[in-house]
Write a structure and sequence with these properties.
Shape: elongated
Oligomer: single chain
Strand content: over 45%
Number of helices: 1
Helix content: under 10%
Radius of gyration: 27 Å
Structural class: mainly beta
Largest sheet: 19 strands, antiparallel
Length: 234
């Protein structure tokens, strides 16, 4: 009986030692294979850990940052078996979810969700094309979930209508973009929803005649051609 227990303990110890020795190994083709762990320079604190299958990341990788000289989980990537795509989450130093989405190598792709700093509420949603550039509609939300902003992107650049909202849902601004520049009709509204100014931009510059209103009535017109590029200045 004692002999059996000794053999059992010896087997466990041998397996443990072997497992430790097989960390950070290469296959015959000099590709990373098996469990890998890396540490921050001159420390025993983990920088990342995960598993490779003949050079390819598989399953779950964990990444860490140093916080008061201790490793804190900052991100996880769950890889699939056929390509470099992974489901990713980013975390704060306190473990709060910051964002989540999909990556292909270092590129953001598909839908990404970002969260408010002090709550679990969604702060924004956006989409990336296969080249890692913003594409389609981006939405921004107030902490209570009401819409704060809508914008559209094409190949990473603002394109089409962008709208800003007050917390009560009132439209505050409507801008038209083309190739990341203000281009087209734009409107400004007051807190009550009354139109305050309207006009057009051409290549980021106010262009032509702009109309200005008070209490819904036209009070002034002004030619803004070649004036300020700042869209927040009326």
């Amino acid at each position: 009986m004692k002999h059996s227990i000794f053999i059992y303990i010896l087997t466990i110890l041998t397996s443990t030692i072997y497992a430790q020795e097989t960390v950070n190994q290469f296959d015959n083709g000099n590709k990373r294979h098996g469990v890998w762990k890396k540490y921050f320079d001159k420390t025993k604190e983990l920088r990342y850990e995960g598993q490779f299958e003949h050079g390819k990341e598989v399953d779950t990788f964990k990444f860490y940052t140093l916080n008061t000289n201790k490793s804190v989980l900052s991100a996880t990537k769950v890889f699939n078996d056929i390509n470099n795509k992974a489901q990713v989450i980013f975390l704060s130093s306190k473990g709060k979810l910051i964002s989540k989405g999909e990556m292909n190598g270092k590129l953001y792709i598909g839908k990404w969700i970002y969260y408010h700093n002090k709550s679990a509420s969604i702060m924004s949603t956006e989409f990336y094309n296969d080249n890692g550039k913003l594409q389609g509609e981006k939405l921004v939300f107030y902490p209570d979930g009401t819409i704060a902003e809508k914008a559209n992107y094409k190949e990473g650049k603002l394109d089409g209508k962008s709208i800003w909202y007050a917390k009560n849902g009132t439209v505050l601004k409507e801008f038209m973009y083309e190739n990341d520049e203000l281009n087209g009709d734009c409107k400004y509204y007051g807190a009550s929803g009354d139109l305050e100014a309207e006009g057009a931009y051409r290549k980021d510059v106010k262009h032509g005649i702009w109309n200005y209103y008070e209490n819904g009535k036209l009070v002034k017109t002004k030619d803004h051609t070649k004036r300020s590029k700042n869209p927040n200045k009326q």
